[in-house]
Amino acid sequence: MKSRINTIVLAVVATVFVAGCTSGPSTDVAPQPGTGDIVNVAVTDSGFVPEVVEIDAGDTVVWTNSRTNVNVWPASDDHPTHTKLPGFDPLRGIGKGQTYQFTFTKSGEWRYHDHLHPAVEGLIRVK
Ligand SMILES: [Cu+2]
Question: How far is 104 from 120, CA to CA, in rounded Å?
Fold first, then answer.
């Protein structure tokens, strides 16, 4: 009788152990390759905040239009062609409260500006 109980206990323990192993990967959120951090930049009436951002390759910068009543258009230098970092250009103005995001995969010092207000400048430093 005692050995039968031991067998049942062992079976239960084994079942829990196996269930724990099989359910592990689906409940854990493993970082996916190529998925970096997200860094937020506000586009305010006084410029990009922060103006200089340092990130790792693979990180994504999200700009949010926090200006009073104008669209913004963060884009790679040089104005107006935006060719220093191809692809870093939303190709349109971003309305109040809206966002634009870009994932930086290339290391370097990427200067950018607000295409609609080119005097407003910022820098993304990608390690
Ligand atoms: Cu421009």
Answer: 20
The answer to whether residues 89 and 112 touch, using CB atoms and an 8 Å cutoff, is: no
Domain ranges of the chain: 38-126
Gap from CA of 120 to ligand 1 centroid (Å) = 10
Distance 119 CA to ligand 1 centre (A): 10
* The two three-digit tokens of residue 106, written as one number: 């290339």
Q: What is the rounded average pLDDT for all residues in the chain?
A: 84
Determine the distance separating the centroid of ligand 1 and the alpha carbon of 17, expressed in angstroms: 59
Expressed in angstroms and rounded, the spacing between residue 26 Cα and the centre of ligand 1 is: 44
More confident residue, 127 or 4: 127
For 38-126, CATH number?
2.60.40.420
pTM of the predicted structure, to 2 decimals: 0.73
